[in-house]
Write a structure and sequence with these properties.
Layout (H helix, E strand, L loop, with lengths): L36 E18 L5 E21 L4 E5 L11 H12 L7 E7 L10 H16 L6 H9 L5 H4 L5 E6 L3 E5 L5 E6 L7 H6 L12 H14 L7 H7 L2 H11 L4 E4 L6 E6 L5 H15 L3 E4 L10
Parallel strand pairs: 3-4
Antiparallel strand pairs: 1-2, 2-4, 2-5, 5-6, 7-9, 7-10, 8-9
Helix pairs in contact: 1-2, 2-3
Length: 329
């Protein structure tokens, strides 16, 4: 099986002696990869989220447990030789120009890549993750674009370098720019400590059909620059114990639930349906319930989802935690 090489024309295709100069300037590391790379961009939930305060630079100091799901978007990438980044999306309400976070991720990659210099990309996003829902949809698409381009261009950057790129785009992007299924994260997203993926639970996601601005939530949190004591070390050690004891919290609920009391109804209905934990993800408004496998079969879980759809609309999804390899790498 031959190795697939992407080459582009060079202005200096012959040297001074007239000898041909190879046109290729990088070589893919895998045998015969597809011309179009199709990647899974997972949604995430925050199994806990603490806001320690606002730092002097205006950013918020967080501690959170993030878990990727087997529910998400599909991102297709195809390198082009014209240096232009083009993006299309199945959701026409989203920007499909250079302001889209996935397009910005591609532009950042090409700006920093020596192997990708002069290239562009065609990006296609099939959206399933609701927008501004607390599930990390835009961040996931951007992180997967970074990972996918890095794969196409022979792994030029380490995972740590991709995460550093992601931090320039948003606080959640570093998580999606790595292959970790779950992390305990601190700071503004730059500190990540991998955890095993959550097992033994079915997950029901209920999105009420409206969006919530993350910026608005943080602006209304009423924090000072005096930071609370960090519990990151104990969280890293005892995250699963917190789950067992039902001690998972999301500090952002104090803002979002106060303005949208219907979210409290979703939380209570999920618990009444058998959820061991019900929590808002991120800044909301999506609420999720964790249902132990021992108490809910797949059929029973689907029945819960059907009932939630009857009450709260069609944006109800059944998922599981992402554990192990996937097409996103």
């Amino acid at each position: 099986m031959s190795s697939c090489v992407l080459s582009r024309p060079s202005k200096n295709s012959r040297d001074r002696t007239g000898a041909l100069v190879p046109l290729m300037d990088w070589q893919l590391m895998e045998s015969d990869p597809p011309k179009v790379l199709e990647l899974f961009a997972p949604a995430k939930i925050n199994l806990f989220l603490r806001v320690l305060g606002r730092r002097a630079d205006g950013y918020h100091q967080l501690e959170t447990w993030m878990q990727k799901l087997d529910f998400g978007d599909t991102v297709s990438l195809q390198p082009t030789l014209d240096g232009v980044i083009r993006l299309s999306c199945s959701d026409s309400s989203l920007p499909q120009d250079s302001s889209n976070l996935a397009s910005r991720a591609a532009a950042l990659f090409f700006a920093l890549s020596s192997r990708g210099k002069g290239y562009g990309a065609d990006i296609r996003i099939e959206k399933r993750i609701p927008v501004a829902a607390g599930l990390g949809g835009g961040s996931s698409d951007a992180g997967v674009v970074l990972r996918g381009l890095n794969r196409l261009f022979g792994g030029e950057f380490s995972e740590e370098q991709l995460a550093s790129m992601g931090l320039q785009l948003g606080a959640d992007v570093p998580f999606f720019a790595t292959g970790h299924d779950a992390v305990i994260a601190g700071g503004v997203g730059e500190e990540m400590y991998p955890l095993p993926g959550l097992q033994g639970y079915g997950i029901v996601l209920v999105n009420p059909g409206f969006s919530v601005s993350t910026r608005w939530v943080f602006e209304n949190l009423g924090l000072t620059t005096e930071l609370k004591e960090s519990k990151l070390a104990s969280f890293r050690k005892d995250a699963f114990a917190l789950l067992t004891r039902g001690e998972l919290v999301n500090d952002l609920e104090s803002v979002t639930l106060a303005s949208y009391p219907e979210l409290m109804k979703i939380k209570s209905d999920l618990v009444d349906a058998g959820a061991e934990i019900s929590l808002m993800s991120g800044s909301g408004p999506t609420v999720f319930g964790l249902f132990p496998d021992a108490s809910k079969s797949a059929v029973a879980l689907q029945a819960v989802a059907d009932e939630m759809r009857r009450k709260f609309g069609e944006r109800v999804f059944v998922a599981r935690a992402k554990v192990g390899a996937s097409p996103s790498g």
